[in-house]
Amino acid sequence: MTGSGNAICRDAFYHREMSEVLEQEAKTGAGHAQKYTRNSPYASNVNVNYLLTAEGSEKETRHVELALEEGMTYTPGDAVGIIPENRAEAVDDALKALGYKGDERVLDHYKVEISLEEALRTRLGIGKLSRGSIGQYAKLAPNLDGLKVLIGPDNRARAEEYCWGREFVDLATDFPGVVTDPQQLFNVLQRLTPRMYSISSSQKVHPDSVHTTVRVIRYETHGRDRQGVASGHLGDRAGEGTAMPIFLHSNNNFRLPEEASAPVIMVGPGTGIAPFRAFLEERQADGAPGENWLFFGEQREKMDFLYKDQLQGMVKAGVLTHLHTAFSRDQHNKVYVQDRIQENAKEVFEWLERGAYFYVCGDATRMAKDVETALLDAIAKGSNGTLEHAAEYLATMKKQKRYQRDVY
Ligand SMILES: Cc1cc2nc3c(=O)[nH]c(=O)nc-3n(C[C@H](O)[C@H](O)[C@H](O)COP(=O)(O)OP(=O)(O)OC[C@H]3O[C@@H](n4cnc5c(N)ncnc54)[C@H](O)[C@@H]3O)c2cc1C
């Protein structure tokens, strides 16, 4: 067992507010109350952190294992919250743009005195810019014409356009000298918030750790290299042994069937694979007799087939009844998981008729909708019914908790 075994309570930032703790613990459900929360996280360590994608991939997806203290428990379907820090370069750039050194003293959200550098690194969201921040910033310089055109209900679209691809450093660079007292930043910037990651392990197999599957976000906009706050932290500054504050977050709306014999269909392209690795490990550990079918998709088989060896091993072991993959860039016509569902519509419907549970995890913007459309088609075709009938069928599945989604 690794880890210091203590909640991080080095100052009031992490002190529990009772109402928040109760709310959090109420959400975790009976018998699953968590000792550590977002306001009082566990001081975990990174045990393992490696790249899952191969060289040449357009994606950078990592497998990260974090140590747990004895007594910390999770169930497949749960998530782990990670409390990130802003990277030093981003903090330095913000300080330069603001014209401060970083050793100035400020009071944090709980009135604890810290340096401005620490505030920008651990307390304030200096990543993706929001319209709210522009509005608060503009209040500090009401006569600045360039800022005036970005505030108020009439300028919403213009402000959104300005925010796209920009961070606080861009605002402070474009409109310098506005923040005359570093304490004002606590009104301008939102709090640095934890990021959630679907757990990709079964505790029956890994009793002392929690695994995650993290896509590292990197991009360039407006002449600057950017990265996601938490995924960048895990990607660049979280080698083995690095301290990482975490908390476990229960999700009772994404659970394996209680009946171990029920068939399960899982659709998890990209990092959507995460909870299904957990589901499959759990079912394998339990020796659950129910059949398992996984649809996985990514760009290229050679570089992006996450957990390929483990999944193929599960096929050989008979744990995975079917493994259907869709690698969109491996052929001229793009192929996605929803296409594979359509190709296998008849058998998908047969499984549903046998009581299969249908799970979807991953991208909420397009994939989840396209998969639902393919599923409705499969139901309509299989039942010789209409799409209205298919919608009713799916609504019944939802009521029976046989259609569950974890999309973000
Ligand atoms: C329940 C749940 C489970 C999740 N599970 C996982 C998981 O298993 N694996 C996983 O990787 N993530 C998962 N996520 C997402 C994760 O929580 C983070 O949102 C994600 O890692 C990004 O966080 P970040 O701090 O790295 O990026 P942030 O600092 O939050 O930045 C992300 C923002 O950057 C901007 N951006 C990104 N790319 C570009 C671009 N090319 N051009 C311009 N702007 C851009 C977008 O505005 C985007 O919203 C999950 C989320 C939830 C809610």
UniProtKB/TrEMBL annotation:
Superkingdom of the organism of origin: Bacteria
The FAD-binding FR-type domain, residue ranges: 39-257
EC number: 1.8.1.2
Keywords for this protein: Amino-acid biosynthesis, Cysteine biosynthesis, FAD, Flavoprotein, FMN, NADP, Oxidoreductase
Any one Gene Ontology cellular component term annotated for this protein: cytosol
UniProt keyword annotation of NADP present: yes
Annotated GO MF terms: flavin adenine dinucleotide binding; FMN binding; sulfite reductase (NADPH) activity
Phosphoprotein as UniProt keyword: no
Cofactor: FMN; FAD
Name used for this protein in its record: assimilatory sulfite reductase (NADPH)
Organism of this sequence: Edaphobacter modestus
